[in-house]
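Please go through the protein record below and see whether the fold suits the sequence. Record follows.
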Amino acid sequence: MEELAGLAGITVRTLRFYRERKLIPPPRREGRIAWYDDHHLARLRTIAALLNRGHTLTGIAELAEALDHGRDVADVLGVADPTEEEPVRLTPEELAARFEGEVTPENLAAALDLGYLGTDGDEIVHISRRLLDVSSALVREGIPLAEVLKAGARVREHVDAMAEMFAELVLRHTTEDDLQRLRPLARSVVEAELSLALDRRLRKPDQRID
């Protein structure tokens, strides 16, 4: 316990408090010996990063309890309802390999804050294979993961507004059941408008259309 606390930069008293609050899973026991591993250290570092971002211990404890005691990962990540996105399960090593050198406690906390990541036992769950593939591709192109996550937060604000606008439009003229059926139309509009916006952005200034 003292070794784990030292590596995490906390006191043994704080570590005991986290155990009592069920913020970390119990150690593996062999007789009277309790063994902690890299997963415990990763959890402690993530807790520290979440606290630095303003999350409360109560909120962190609720998430940890949900994930460690069998609550469905899709429900924890907010994708229990029908979705076109495919969650991806990864080991910590597989996640680190996708974002070599970029999987820091701060980036993990940001991804958790966005709802991109959750944990299920020893596995990490990403909410969307497409977002995982795109973000790892951007990092391979030399864009820092922290900047990718910041951009993701900005995109989230805009797409939430667009989804709300489309839902209001559909529900004004149809029913709730039609919203799921018509969602491909909303996706096509967004993809087309983004393509046109990129065209405008890539034109030379003297060729840009106002």
In short: Residues 134 and 148 are 10 Å apart (CA to CA). The chain has a mean pLDDT of 82. The chain has ten helices and five strands.
